[in-house]
Amino acid sequence: MSSTVPPASPGPALRSSRKVATASLVGTTIEWYDFFIFGTAAALVFNQVFFPSVDPVTGTLSAFGAFAVGFIARPLGGAVFAHFGDRVGRKPMLVYSLLLMGAATVGMGLLPGYDTLGIWAPVLLVVLRFLQGFGVGGEWGGAALMAVEHAPAHRRGFYGSWPQVGVPLGLVLGTATFAVLSATLTDEQFLAWGWRVPFLASIALIAVGMWIRLGVHESPVFQKTMDEKAANRMPVLEALRTYPKEILLAAGSFLATNSTFYVSSVWLVTYATQQLSYDRTTILAANSVLSLSDIPLILAFGLLSDRIGRRPMFVGGMALLAVFAVPYFWLVSTGSVWLFLLGGLIVQVARSAVYGPQSAFFAEQFSTEMRYSGASLAYQIASILGGLAPLLCTALVAATGSLYAVAGYVVGIALVSLVCSYLMTETLRSGLRDGVRPAAARG
């Protein structure tokens, strides 16, 4: 039985697809902006503001540890939001996740530092970071499914890539804001209050996101399931029982893409400025340029997956990442911003080949009544290790003194993702499905 509801005419259906994809893109951009500015602040100032009583290396480890808490919370948030997303709808969960993220982010901007609150400052920072992670845990599944389930059957990869673009846009918005503040304020001003500006600016962004998200309709595919009263009472548990292989393989396929994103956008900011003598503003600007380049790549690979398949994109991207990991870190270590950009661009191509078609590929692995649960669990399981990457990279360099220890780590996780991607079932022709999908031969 087909899971799509035929539209009355192609024109309205196409406009609806674009409207929902745009709403997913804007909301996702805002939520990832909130999530990423914590990582930039952790790399630049949190060790001084919230962990000043320890040595610099321990302070950096503590700041990245707080950063990682958000990733530990993400699977929990993903499970809770997925449960209700598969029970009551995709749209309400998108609204609630945006509100939770916004409240936690503004709270961080208002939080006094260690000098004022003592030990309670880092404790409250970790609590707020946990709430951020809990909120963003429910964001991806809802935004991705809304875009994919509203899309025409032959363009699910393309429209599913729109909310994926929210990640680099959120990073650009956050990093560019920090870059402007870093360039215009003195170090003392930046440390005293400048870093708070991006967090407090979230108030305006959340208002815009709420206005847009409240204006879209529920997914027609999910609405059909609700009309037929086919929703599961415990969709997360049912997804784990029915699709354990699909969840684990999907999580593994995303491991390297997620981990290396945080290696380059968070950990490398600290390492490049502290150990390789790159200028802080230059590195922030370079990361903004690389994130901008990600946008057309993600859209192009999403569209390409509608022609040649999802799995070839995943396998090709991870093969490129595994081969290029060592040359990438050599380029970074030269101290040349132009070689830094060249290496970063090639890594972006490898990651975008996965991230572009990911929404469609993950959604097509699961039946409608468990799709939010299955896709979210896979995404957020991978995010745990991704969030630990800055902490792990700091520890690897501290233990070995070599940047190439990080390169070896990247090669290893790229190979894991390559194997998992190869073992996943191609879904370009099978598409979205009603009911429980029987085991299918890989093809």
TrEMBL record:
CDD domains: MFS_ShiA_like
Localization: Cell membrane
InterPro entries given in the database record: MFS (IPR011701), MFS_dom (IPR020846), MFS_trans_sf (IPR036259)
UniProt main location, coarse: membrane
SUPFAM superfamilies from the UniProt entry: MFS general substrate transporter
Domain annotation Major facilitator superfamily (MFS) profile: ranges: 20-429
Keyword flag Transmembrane: yes
Keywords: Cell membrane, Membrane, Transmembrane, Transmembrane helix, Transport
This protein's record includes keyword Disulfide bond: no
Name under which the protein is recorded: MFS transporter
Organism: Pseudonocardia spirodelae
Upper taxonomic lineage: Bacteria, Bacillati, Actinomycetota, Actinomycetes, Pseudonocardiales
